[in-house]
């Protein structure tokens, strides 16, 4: 019984040790974070507009296209990169922590600029 547990534990550990080789052509984590920050801002802008839901979806698609152009990223490359990173919850958690920190910093900076304070 103990041997069976040890063998199962070894198999489990060895299967978890395979390398996470990222396929070619995907966005690196830093670029992915930058694009996702702008996507989050775009979603906020589109949802805050006083227009119908259908109109906000059209607006979002236009703004999303501008985000991809800004970062010189193809939407299919972004989608494939997102699918890849979603396989690794710890990596996505770290990326979203950076995104939230950046959005919070932008919000704080925006508030201070509105109050006349500039860094």
Overview in brief:
The protein has 119 residues and is mainly alpha-helical. It has helices at 2-15, 29-48, 53-70, 75-85, 89-114.
Report what the structure shows:
The protein has 119 residues and is mainly alpha-helical. It has one domain (26-114). The protein contains 5 helices and no strands. The chain is globular and about 45 Å long. The N and C termini lie far apart (65 Å).
Overall mean confidence score, pLDDT: 81
Number of helices: 5
Question: What's the gyration radius in Å?
Answer: 20 Å
Number of domains: 1
| SS-derived structural category | mainly alpha
State the end-to-end distance: 65 Å
The profile of the biggest β sheet is:
none
How many β-strand runs? 0
Work out the helicity level. over 70%
Q: What best-fitting shape do the alpha-carbon axes yield?
A: globular
What is the ordering of alpha helices and beta strands?
HHHHH
Poorly predicted runs: 4-10
Strand content: under 5%
Describe the SSE topology.
Layout: H1 2-15, H2 29-48, H3 53-70, H4 75-85, H5 89-114
Helix pairs in contact: 2-3, 2-5
Essential attributes:
119 residues, mainly alpha
């Amino acid at each position: 019984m103990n041997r069976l547990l040890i063998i199962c534990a070894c198999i489990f550990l060895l299967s978890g040790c395979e390398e996470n080789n990222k396929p070619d052509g995907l966005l690196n984590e830093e670029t992915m974070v930058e694009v996702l920050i702008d996507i989050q801002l775009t979603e906020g802008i589109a949802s805050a507009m006083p227009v119908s839901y259908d109109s906000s979806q059209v607006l979002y698609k236009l703004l999303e296209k501008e985000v991809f152009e800004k970062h010189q990223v193809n939407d299919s490359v972004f989608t494939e990169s997102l699918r890849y990173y979603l396989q690794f919850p710890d990596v996505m958690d770290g990326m979203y922590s950076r995104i939230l920190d950046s959005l919070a910093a932008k919000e704080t900076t925006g508030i201070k600029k509105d109050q006349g304070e500039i860094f």
